[in-house]
Amino acid sequence: MSDPARSEPLEAGDQPQLAGGGFSEVLQRLSEGDVERVSVGAILEAFGDRAFGALLLVFALPNALPMPPGTSAVLGAPLVFIAFQLMIGRSVLWLPSFITKRSMRREDFGALTAKVVPWVKRLERLLKPRAQLLTTPVADRFTGAACFALSLILFLPIPFGNMPPAVAISAFALGMLEADGVAIAIGWLSTTVSFGIMVALWKVVLAGVHAFAAPVLRLFGF
């Protein structure tokens, strides 16, 4: 294995075949390895020069499921970099070493994989090229902008608040991988729901602050 701290450029348009199968097989091989920790660099190396959609899916899908605390901290950071580069139309993906060095225990990665793989297998059977107006290079830049905003929401300390944006990013990623515009449309719908949830939570927080502050302000004659 090469140094996981090394940051390799990944061609956005390349989708070479993975040895031994697709996502599920690669994730299982990583979880069954003999290393003590699985790094982001190792995940990138295992998938090779995959499309932006492949890497978005790798880091977003685990956050869409109930996972051990800290999972979003390890897998969420690359989403910001990947989505931003997709948004600005870069053809080469680059991740800095401080991200590729991040890792989790192999046991935790195995638990994550055990939850993710069944979902990946089901989703792969449903996808097919269709409604490709939503999968053009121009459309990909709008997709990248949505994923960038959603990836920032992932970091907010809201219980289960990372799941709706992770679902949306996963749908976008699957649509990009299989040129499936229906999946992209589901991603946009999920994005709308995610922002709706954020707005509702923000209103609740403001209402709580106002309810707490109003009596205090009255005491001081405000």
UniProtKB/TrEMBL annotation:
Record carries keyword Membrane: yes
Keyword Ribonucleoprotein on entry: no
Pfam hit, one: ExoD
Region annotated Disordered, chain positions: 1-20
UniProt cross-references to InterPro entries, sorted A to Z: ExoD (IPR010331)
UniProt entry keywords in alphabetical sequence: Membrane, Transmembrane, Transmembrane helix
Stretches that traverse the bilayer: 73-96, 138-160
PANTHER family according to UniProt: EXOPOLYSACCHARIDE SYNTHESIS PROTEIN
Record's protein name: Exopolysaccharide biosynthesis protein
Gene source species: Hansschlegelia beijingensis
